[in-house]
Specification:
globular; UDP-n-acetylglucosamine1-carboxyvinyl-transferase, Chain; binds shikimate-3-phosphate; alpha/beta; 24 strands; four-stranded mixed sheet
Length: 444
Amino acid sequence: MSHGPASPLTARPAGPLTGEAHVPGDKSISHRSLILGAMAVGETRVTGLLEGQDVLDTGKAMQAFGAQVEKQGDTWIVQGVGVGGLLEPKDVIDCGNSGTGVRLLMGAAATHGFSVTYTGDASLRKRPMARVTDPLALFGARAYGRSGGRLPMTIVGAASPVPARYATPVASAQIKSAVLLAGLNAPGETVVIEREATRDHSERMLRGFGAEVDVQQTNEGHVITLVGQPELRPQTIQVPRDPSSAAFPVCAALIVPGSDVLVPNIGLNPTRAGLFQTLKDMGADLTYENLREEGGEPVADLRARFSPDMQGIEVPPDRAASMIDEYPILSVVAAHATGTTVMRGVSELRVKECDRIDAMAVGLRACGITVRDGADWWEVDGRGPGDMPGGATVAVHLDHRIAMSFLVAGMAANKGITVDDATPIATSFPIFKALMGDLGADFG
Ligand code: S3P
C-alpha cells in the first residue's frame, strides 16, 4: 500500500513503566502462514496473525494469486490453491514497505508459467532484489527491473522449472525462503546452503504443511534440502508473539528508571533470540519466567526491570543473524550502558527498510550520543544510566524500527525526542503507541 502523509510523534521522558505488554503476532510467521496457506490444498486457519500493513499486503497479494483470504471473527481463513496452482495476477503486486513480502512472493510465483510485476513504497523501491532474482534464474525465471535490480520489476516465471542448488552469499532468511518456496513447484530436490543459520520458520512451517525438508550441518554450513512438488496439507496455526516487537517494551523497561514490565508468551526460537542473550550479557535484569515449550519451540514470559548497571560489550558477530532487526533498539540501550558497545559483521543493516546504521548514528548523535561507524560495523559510547540528552527531531526514513527505537529513546532521555513520521510503525506493530501508553509512556 502507498504511504500516506507523514505524522510526527514525540516521546517525552516517562515515569516508571509497569504492567503487561501483549505484543502482536510474529511478522515472519504471519507472512509465511498466508503464503503457505495459499499453496496448500484446502482451508488453513490462522489465529494471532499480525494485522500490520506488511502482512495485510501479503494477504492481498495471495488473493491476487487466486487464493481466498478472509477474516472470520478472530481467525484468518485461507483457501489454498495447491502447489503449482497460483494464478497470474491481473495487476501489479504492491508489497508496500515489506521486503519479506515481496521476496517471498517472488520465490513462490517464480516457478509458475506466468509473469508478475512487483512494486512497493519509496523504501522498498530502493532495496536490492538481485539477491533473490539471481537464485530464481537457476529455476529458469527471468527478471526485468530498474537499474541495480530495483523495483518495479517483472519476473517471467519458469513454465518448466528445474530444481536449484544455491549457496547464499549473505546470511538472509528471505533469500533462503524465496529459494525454498520456488522449489515447491520444481521437480526433484532444491538445495539451499547457508554458512550461518538464519531464522528457520520456513523450514519448520514447510514441514508442518507436509513438505519433506532435510537440514544437515556440514563443512559448507547448513544444507537445507526440499523435495519439490509435495501436496501441502492445510494447517491450523496459532502465530506466536513477535520477539522483535517484544524488544521495544523490554528495552524501554531496562532504561526507564523504576520500571518493571512483563511481556508474556514470547517465542525464544534460537534463530531469533540473540537480542535477549546480548542484553543479559550486558547485565540487564531480564528473566525468562514460565519457560515452556509450545509447538516445538521454547516460549517464555519476559520480565524486564530497570537496569542501571549495564555494561557495553562487543556483540559476537556470529550472533548477528539471530538479532538482525534488533540492532537499532540495542543501540538505544547501549547509550544507557557504561562503556562502548561494539557491533560488527552487520553490513546487512545498511539494506533494510533504510540504512539502519546511518539512521541510528545520525539520530543518536543529534541526541548527544557518540557513535562511530563503518561499512559493516558501528560503536556506541554509553553515557551510563539516564544520561542521554535527547531533545532532537530525527528522520525515520520510512522505517518502523527506527521510529520505535527513537520513541523508546525519548522515554528515557533528559528531553523528549520527536520522530518525523510515526506512520511506518503500522507495518509491524500497529498497537505500539497504545501499548506503550498503557505501560506509562507519554507520547504526543
Ligand atoms: C525476515 C528476514 C530478515 C529480517 C526481516 C524478516 C524473514 O531479513 O530482517 O525483518 O521473515 O525472513 P533478511 O533475510 O534480509 O536478513
